[in-house]
Amino acid sequence: MKTILFFFFAxxxxxxxxxxxxxxxxxxxKADNTVKLNEGRSLNNLPVLAYKLTHNLSxxxxxxxxxxxxxxxxxxxxxxxxxxxxxxxxKFKNDSLGYIKWxxxxxxxxxxKLLKYKKTMCTGYAYLIKELCFMANIxxxxxxxxxxxxxxxxxxxxxxxxxxxxxxxxxxxxxxDATWSSGYMINGNLFVKDYNNGYFLTEPVxxxxxxxPLQRKWxxxxxxxxxxxxxEPIVYGETFKQQIIxxxxxxxxxxxxxxEEISFRFKSLKTISTETISLIKISGIxxxxxxxxxxxxxNGIISFKYSFKNKGLYDVHLKVxxxxxxxxxxxxxxx
Length: 335
Hints:
- Helix content is about 30%, strand content about 30%.
- It is α+β, with helices and mostly antiparallel strands.
- The protein has two domains: about 10-230, Roll (C8orf32 fold); about 240-335, Immunoglobulins (Immunoglobulin-like).
């Protein structure tokens, strides 16, 4: 998770946007404990589930927190469905109407499986979040679009392959992705539960690094809405956990001359030590650490420099602590 132009919708510039930091005074302990108390509860009666998750909570954001976290922790990714849908997308890649027809028919099967076995993929997660929110009187929408990863939609937006949610809290819209919060697939066959809180009410600029909606209003940021898609560096679940927003280089691929200096910059939404930052290359099971220099942290904007001495094609990775948070491709040519 390649270049495409979109039209600018002037009517949506006034959409309010924000992120989880708006709720830094809220203690989510009670909401999280409510999730634990209702672990394993059935999906056979959604109104009862919505009531159990929210009736003891006083604020909208706490109620949404309980709904979102419960879904992430109690619903598993379905590898069979994931692979089936992927094959159909490939089959119908030149026949969008054919895919829509097949998908509409398949949704009934997928939703029945969700309710019976608590297994699904992105559309099911987004659907369940929206339904539970509706029953809790919280405004929520399903957002369809492009999920960018190292496997798909890397350099251009070729395949609409993902769904997530926008939720309205205190009259502002927020973004979240229960699918990618819940865990991840290994080789498309094994789902690993691994809750990632970074996809909960995410900063829109960070969210847009690997989510691109069909309706651009759901970018929820005027600066993003008014610009075209750019193939930016690849980011990962760890990027969201670490709350890192890559800034420079702005694009996935950069061409340099030998010994030409390149600057790397990123914004950190939490306090980090510059000692935990590195630039690495991975070859097989070995990791090479580049000797970066001019490493600075200026009010949360971290920057450093490096120059490549030999020509070639390099996949380099920005690392914070033990996590890879961004990947760049650097082509070094002769002087």
